[in-house]
Write a structure and sequence with these properties.
Chain lengths: 114, 113
């Protein structure tokens, strides 16, 4: 069963506009959530994270929102830039058995159009 | 900054060959991980090691084994490569903490013919 889901395989956004990437999870034991960005032929790089004690975390153009009751998180990129074109993975960890392991979603390919 | 390196960027092997993928990290991290990435499936955990000589199966360990003889090095072994093991393999490391981010290597694109 897919505990972390990214239901949009791809997203296309105009340069300068807001990009919103979504992620849903099913395991209520998850208490830490991360977003990674991946360019082709490179490893994922950490982008931003959020603990379940918060509902928002911001870092420059990137903001992650967490809605625990809906088991949903989203990544907002404002303004979107061509260099943001990449595959974005959300990941989650938590619980006694899984505190140090990450469970990843399927990824969303973001394309920023000039 | 943490550096995680993988022995090969691209590898082509034949069905039935034994394949070794090597990963080295330079930040003295206790945890190391092997994932495979396939389109539409995201990253799936193959094996996890939380200390030297310690290992734990991930979600898809079948057909794979691992070795961790030194803290900085974690090897993934395909005992008898098959075409369905053609994939991107990613190594990662982290501190032994809850809520610890993982640092990834550049990946090895393995093709099994």
């Amino acid at each position: 069963d897919q505990q972390v889901k990214q239901n949009s395989p791809s997203l296309s956004v105009q340069e300068g506009r807001i990009s919103i990437l979504n992620c849903d999870y099913t395991n209520s034991m998850f208490d830490y959530f991360l977003w990674y960005k991946k360019y082709p032929a490179e490893g994922p790089t950490f982008l931003i994270s959020i603990s379940s004690i918060k509902d928002k975390n911001e870092d420059g153009r990137f903001t992650v929102f967490l809605n625990k009751s809906a088991k949903h998180l989203s990544l907002h990129i404002v303004p979107s830039q061509p260099g943001d074109s990449a595959v974005y993975f959300c990941a989650a960890s938590g619980g006694i058995q899984g505190a140090q392991k990450l469970v990843f979603g399927q990824g969303t390919r973001l394309t920023i159009n000039p | 900054d943490v550096k995680v390196t993988q022995s090969s960027r691209y590898l082509v092997k034949r069905t039935g060959e034994k394949v070794f993928l090597e990963c080295v990290q330079d930040m003295d991290h206790e945890n190391m991980f092997w994932y495979r990435q396939d389109p539409g499936l995201g990253l799936r955990l193959i094996y996890f090691s939380y200390d030297v000589k310690m290992k734990e199966k991930g979600d898809i360990p079948e057909g794979y084994s691992v070795s961790r003889e030194k803290k900085e090095r974690f090897s993934l072994i395909l005992e008898s490569a098959s075409t369905n093991q053609t994939s991107m393999y990613l190594c990662a490391s982290s501190l032994p903490l809850g809520q610890a981010r993982q640092f990834f290597g550049p990946g090895t694109r393995l093709t099994v013919l």
